[in-house]
Amino acid sequence: MFFWHERRAGIDVAITDRHGGVSSAPFGELNLARHVGDEPAAVEANRAAVAAELGLPAERLVFMDQCHGATVEVIDGPWQGDPPACDAVITRASDLALVVMVADCVPVLLADPEAGVVGAVHAGRPGLVAGVVGAALDALADLGARAPYAVVGPSVCGRCYEVPEEMRAAAAAVEPASATVSWTGTPAIDVGAGVVAQLAGRGVPVTWVPGCTREDDRLFSYRRTSPTGRFAGAIRRYAVDPAYLIERPSHPTETS
């Protein structure tokens, strides 16, 4: 169920994989998205299973209607009705899991434990160019964050994200680190590298969870198979259990 999971004192961060759910092909098994054509009952069962693993009821998961923009929504409790149309959500509330769904885009989870603020960001190529990462960091700062850290989840790698030259140039104009070449030497974009560079440029320590969604069949990838499901990054604040204070999992990759 979890591709990666970490608990630091007061913060729970998880990235799901595609296993441990009830969806059938091509959404098998742990699809969390309602909009891809999967059976609604299967999606709800999958969401409830993830929530249970996080120690929450399903209604404490907050999803987004992701728009490939830079809109940030501040959440103060369980969301009623249709999910907010945005690409970043932040909260001070405890025991509320903020969720970003992806199948090649970059999931970014942000936290400042001392300020008691967390956020989830959906950063695809359009969001990278639009500045969603900076917008989310600004919104966290407005809520008192002074020393946030980030977990950046797996996404399609630059080798597998071939694009027209003009598209690469547009991304590079915003973040030069995103410009790269594909396996065959054609123009490509590494959105994950661009996101990490933007975070580092703001002085944010980053844990970059390795993996390419197109190459790793434990994860959903729209570039590999379409239609397909969505995996997720989730983050929440929780009441500190003293046992967690000595539980410090190793980081796959860290930059700062």
Automatic annotation (TrEMBL):
Keywords assigned? Copper, Hydrolase, Metal-binding, Transferase, Zinc
Question: What's the family?
Answer: Belongs to the purine nucleoside phosphorylase YfiH/LACC1 family.
What InterPro entries does UniProt report for this protein, alphabetically? Answer: Cu_polyphenol_OxRdtase (IPR003730), Cu_polyphenol_OxRdtase_sf (IPR038371), Cytotoxic_necrot_fac-like_cat (IPR011324)
What is the name listed in the Swiss-Prot or TrEMBL entry for this protein?
Answer: Purine nucleoside phosphorylase
Which Gene Ontology MF annotations are present?
A: copper ion binding; hydrolase activity; S-methyl-5-thioadenosine phosphorylase activity
Write down the Gene3D superfamilies for this protein, in alphabetical order. CNF1/YfiH-like putative cysteine hydrolases
Tell me the organism. Answer: Candidatus Phosphoribacter hodrii
Q: Does Chaperone show up as a keyword for this record?
A: no
Q: Reaction(s) catalyzed by this protein?
A: inosine + phosphate = alpha-D-ribose 1-phosphate + hypoxanthine; S-methyl-5'-thioadenosine + phosphate = 5-(methylsulfanyl)-alpha-D-ribose 1-phosphate + adenine; adenosine + H2O + H(+) = inosine + NH4(+); adenosine + phosphate = alpha-D-ribose 1-phosphate + adenine
Q: What does this protein do?
A: Purine nucleoside enzyme that catalyzes the phosphorolysis of adenosine and inosine nucleosides, yielding D-ribose 1-phosphate and the respective free bases, adenine and hypoxanthine. Also catalyzes the phosphorolysis of S-methyl-5'-thioadenosine into adenine and S-methyl-5-thio-alpha-D-ribose 1-phosphate. Also has adenosine deaminase activity.
